[in-house]
Amino acid sequence: MSFSQFLIFISEQWLLVFALLLSLNLLLFTESRKAGPALSPQQAINVTNKNGGIFLDVRDAKDFKGAHISKAVNIPTANLQGRMGELEAYKEKPVIVVCRMGTSASAAVKQLRAAGFSQAQRMAGGMMTWDEQRLPVTKK
Question: For 10-33, what is each residue's pLDDT tens digit?
Answer without folding.
Answer: 899 999 999 999 998 887 776 655
